[in-house]
Amino acid sequence: MTAYWLLLISFAGTLSMPAISDTPHCTLHILQDATDSLHRYQLALECKETGGHIRYELQVTRKGKSGTSQAGQSGTTMIDSDHLLLGNVKINLQAADTVLVTGMVRDADEQIIAEAFQEFSVQ
User: Fold this and answer.
1) What is the DSSP string of 27-53?
2) How many Å apart are CA 105 and CA 70, to the nearest integer?
3) β-strand 26-35 against 38-47: which pairing, if any?
4) Hey, which of 9, 82, 95, 115 has its CA 20 to 30 A from 30?
C-alpha cells in the first residue's frame, strides 16, 4: 500500500493550510517536495472506483518581492489504480514568497470529481 502525506505542519520553513476536496468517491491532496529553493507540487488522487477517464489541472501561483508568476500543467489519464500522482510543477522560491496551489479533476462528462487548494508561505 502506498502512503501519501499531506503537509500540514512546518516543513523546512514552509507553512501550509489544509487542502479541500470533493465527492465521497475521490479525494485530492496537494503534495509539496522542497529542496533548498526548488519546490515541486503534485496532485495525489485517491478514488474508490477505477476505470474512468479523467482530466486534471494543476495551477501554481507565486507572489513575492519580485512580483507574481504562474505555472501550471494539465492532462488526461485513466483511473487505473486507487492512488494516482498527477502533474509535476517545479518552481524556485525565495524567503517571504507565498504560493497558492490549486488542483481540479474532472470526469469524462466534465463534472468536477475532486478539487483542492492549499497556500504555502516560505519563512
Assistant:
1) EEEEEEEEETTEEEEEEEEEESS---E
2) 19
3) antiparallel
4) 95
* Residue range 4-21, pLDDT digits in tens: 333 332 333 333 434 444
Instruction: Specify which residues 69 forms β-bridges with.
Output: 62
Q: Per residue in 95-119, pLDDT tens?
A: 889 999 999 999 999 999 999 999 9
Nearest-angstrom CA–CA distance, 17 and 25: 23
Q: Are 101 and 117 in contact (CB under 8 A)?
A: yes
Q: In this structure, are residues 53 and 108 in contact, taking their beta carbons and an 8 Å threshold?
A: yes
Cell digits of residue 38: 526548488
Q: What is the C-alpha to C-alpha distance for residues 53 and 8, in angstroms, rounded to an integer?
A: 30
| DSSP 8-state class, residue 94 | -
Give the residue from 71, 73, 57 showing the smallest Cα distance to 99: 71
Residue whose entry in the numeric block shows the C-alpha cell 470526469: 107
